[in-house]
Design goal:
7-stranded mixed β-sheet; elongated; disordered C terminus
Length: 314
């Protein structure tokens, strides 16, 4: 603990031990933070250029994140969490791949295939079911936010009668442009059906270790597939460190003011905050628009399926 306190003091707080010049604001550290900021911004720009060019190697929308964000919205609405169901995942993935392969975006396929056919073909015996669709979104959070902003899609997300969920994501072309297709299925099984359970070989090993590495894998996928959130977190962390170090350097030992360090640290902090502001504004307005007025799109309405397999009002 004492070692940690000494480290914090040497890097953040001006004192005799660091000649009143915190290590965090010294030239080497400022250059390091500036390099990390530029690297993070470069990662964001490069990823978005790759996506726009059509060389899309990573899906921008992560299935597990869609489910987690959906359950978070249900929790906010005081509705029980949904259970991920393998058959619904298969159904959603099949529908997403079909839209991507044929380049359409609709609840009913070009050949007349209805939404509930995908669920039935996956072997899920539903009592109630619903479908949300989205296309050409940058990341998972944007998809769920857009669904929640649409009354008909929001009804599906927070509908108490649903117990299970499945999500599919596929890459393809939509209106001649590279696009990510997202399908979200909600359902409630028939009485007596066992939902969300898969029986496989017994796992051998430490379950805590497995869950730890599963979480690491999940976070890695999230970081690499959602560059906007990653970049903003990196830049935000650097900005906070700079501002804290500058505040302590300025207000502690006011009789000793290392002007060159305050100017250098202030310049890096201003640069990083400017990047955050530019990213926030640019990504929310300009980057998501092109010659097509609907550069990101939802289906015109959500579909709710009743027990008799007919479309009903949401």
């Amino acid at each position: 603990m004492q070692r940690l306190l000494r480290w914090v003091n040497s890097y953040f707080v001006p004192s005799k031990d660091n000649t009143y010049r915190p290590h965090l604001l010294r030239r080497g550290m400022l250059i390091f933070f500036l390099g990390v900021s530029l690297a993070a911004e470069g990662f964001l720009v490069a990823d978005l250029v790759v996506r726009q060019s059509g060389a899309n190697f990573l899906a921008a929308v992560v299935q597990s994140e869609i489910i987690a964000l959906t359950n978070a919205e249900r929790a906010d609405s005081k509705v029980g969490a949904l259970t991920e169901q393998a058959q619904l995942d298969h159904a959603a993935q099949a529908k997403a791949r079909d839209m991507a392969a044929q380049g359409y975006f609709a609840h009913v396929g070009p050949d007349g295939t209805e939404p509930w056919a995908w669920i039935a073909n996956a072997g899920y015996n539903y009592r109630y079911a619903g479908e949300n669709l989205a296309v050409r979104f940058v990341d998972s959070k944007d998809v769920v936010n857009a669904w929640m902003a649409s009354p008909t899609h929001r009804v599906n997300i927070v509908k108490p009668v649903y117990t299970d969920i499945g999500v599919g994501v596929a890459e393809g072309l939509y209106l001649g442009q590279p696009a990510t297709f997202v399908v979200q299925y909600f359902a409630t099984g028939q009485p007596g059906q066992v939902d969300g359970v898969e029986v496989g070989p017994a796992a051998v090993g430490n379950s805590n270790v497995q869950s730890f590495w599963q979480e690491v894998e999940k976070q890695f996928v999230r970081l690499t597939s959602e560059p906007r959130a990653t970049t903003q977190w990196v830049l935000g962390g650097i900005a906070v460190l700079m501002l804290v170090a500058l505040a302590l350097t300025f207000f502690v030992h006011l009789h000793v003011q290392p002007t060159e360090m305050l100017i250098g640290g202030g310049a890096v902090a201003l640069f990083v905050v400017s990047l955050i502001a530019i990213n926030t504004h640019f990504l929310s307005t300009t980057l998501l628009t092109n010659n097509n007025p609907a550069s990101v799109a939802l289906s015109q309405s959500a579909v709710v399926i009743g027990q008799n397999a007919t479309s009903t009002a949401p």
